[in-house]
Design a protein that fits this description.
Distance between the termini: 39 Å
Helix content: over 70%
Number of strands: 0
Radius of gyration: 30 Å
Shape: elongated
Number of helices: 11
Length: 301
C-alpha cells in the first residue's frame, strides 16, 4: 500500500503562513514567554533561600567532611552531631536577614542581571548596531544610578528599591520604542510615496469625472478613501518617529542627569518625580501607536 502524504501547510501568495498558522505561532510564543516569566518569578521573586543555604559550598564541604570523618572513625556520635547541626542550619539560616543580605542576595542579583541581559540580547538582536550601543550605554547608566543611590545615606533601602524598579521599566520602554521605531522606518522605506500619490490622483480623477451611482464611480470613491487613510497613517508614523526619537534622547539625557544629581538628593521623592515624568511620557507615546500597530499587523499577515 502506498503511503498517505500529509497535505503541505497552506500559504498565501506572498509565501507566508496562513492567518491560522500565524495565530498558532502566536499562541506558542505566548506560552514560551509565560514559561520564562514563571521560571523567572519562581527564582527571583520567591527566592528559594533554603536551596541556597544547603547548596552553599562551605556548608556542603563541612557537612560532607563531617560525615566522611564519622565513617572513617566509625563514630556515630559525630555523624549524629553533623546531621543535627545541618538540620539547625537549614531551619534558621534561610530566615536570617543578615545572611540573606551577605551571602545570597548578591547571588540572586547576579542571576537577575544575567537573565535580564539575555532577554535584552534577544530583544535587540535585530536592531541596528548604533541602537544596540545606545541600549548598552543606557543599561550602564542605570547600573551607575543604582550604585550611587545605594551610597546615598538619605535614601531608605525599601523605598529606594521601589523607585529604582522604575529605571528598569524605562530601559524596557527604551528598547520597545527603539524596536518599534526600527520597524516603522523599515516600513516607510518600503512605501513608494510617489506611486501612492499617483494612485491618489488617479482615483480622485475617476471619482470626480464618473457618474454618480455607477459602479465604477463607487469603486473609485472606495479606493480614494483607502489611499487617503494610508497617507494619514504614513503621516502618523512620521510623527511617531519624531516623537519617539525625542523621547529616546530624553531618557538617555535624564539618566545622565540623575546620575549627576543623585549623590546630593535628600529623599527618594526627588528621584521619583523625574522617573514618573519620564514614564508618563513613554506611556502617552505607546498609547498613540495602537491603531498604527493594528494596521501594520494586518499588513504582515
Amino acid at each position: 500500500m502506498g503511503t498517505i502524504e500529509k497535505p503541505a501547510p497552506r500559504r498565501t501568495l506572498s509565501g507566508t503562513k496562513t492567518p491560522a498558522a500565524g495565530a498558532q505561532q502566536k499562541v506558542v510564543d505566548e506560552a514560551i514567554s509565560a514559561g520564562k516569566n514563571l521560571i523567572r518569578d519562581s527564582i527571583l521573586s520567591k527566592r528559594p533561600y533554603l536551596k541556597f543555604a544547603f547548596g552553599n559550598p562551605y556548608n556542603l564541604s563541612l557537612f560532607s567532611g563531617a560525615l566522611v570523618a564519622a565513617g572513617i572513625t566509625l563514630n556515630p556520635v559525630l555523624a549524629i552531631a553533623a546531621i543535627g547541626a545541618e538540620a539547625l542550619w537549614l531551619l534558621y539560616a534561610p530566615d536570617s536577614k543578615k545572611l540573606r543580605k551577605i551571602l545570597w542576595d548578591p547571588r540572586f542579583e547576579k542571576l537577575r542581571e544575567a537573565i535580564e541581559a539575555q532577554e535584552r540580547e534577544e530583544k535587540t538582536r535585530d536592531l541596528p548596531p548604533y541602537l544596540q550601543q545606545r541600549v548598552a550605554a543606557l543599561v550602564e547608566n542605570r547600573q551607575r544610578i543604582h550604585k550611587l543611590a545605594e551610597q546615598n545615606p538619605s535614601f531608605g533601602s525599601e523605598l529606594l528599591k521601589s523607585e529604582l524598579v522604575k529605571t528598569s521599566r524605562l530601559v524596557d520602554s527604551f528598547i520597545e520604542m527603539a524596536i518599534r521605531s526600527t520597524r516603522y522606518e523599515q516600513y516607510l522605506e518600503s512605501v513608494d510615496l510617489r506611486e501612492l500619490e499617483r494612485d491618489r490622483q488617479r482615483w480622485e480623477t475617476r471619482m470626480r469625472t464618473g457618474k454618480a451611482g455607477e459602479a465604477d464611480t463607487e469603486i473609485a470613491k472606495k479606493n480614494f478613501a483607502i489611499i487617503l487613510k494610508r497617507l494619514d497613517k504614513i503621516r502618523e508614523i512620521r510623527e511617531y518617529l519624531g516623537t519617539a526619537r525625542g523621547q529616546l534622547d530624553l531618557i538617555e539625557n535624564s539618566f545622565k542627569l540623575i546620575a549627576d544629581q543623585i549623590v546630593t538628593m535628600h529623599s527618594p521623592g526627588e528621584l521619583s518625580g523625574q522617573l514618573d515624568e519620564l514614564l508618563t511620557g513613554v506611556e502617552a507615546i505607546q498609547e498613540s501607536t495602537r491603531d498604527t500597530e493594528k494596521m501594520l499587523a494586518a499588513m504582515e499577515i
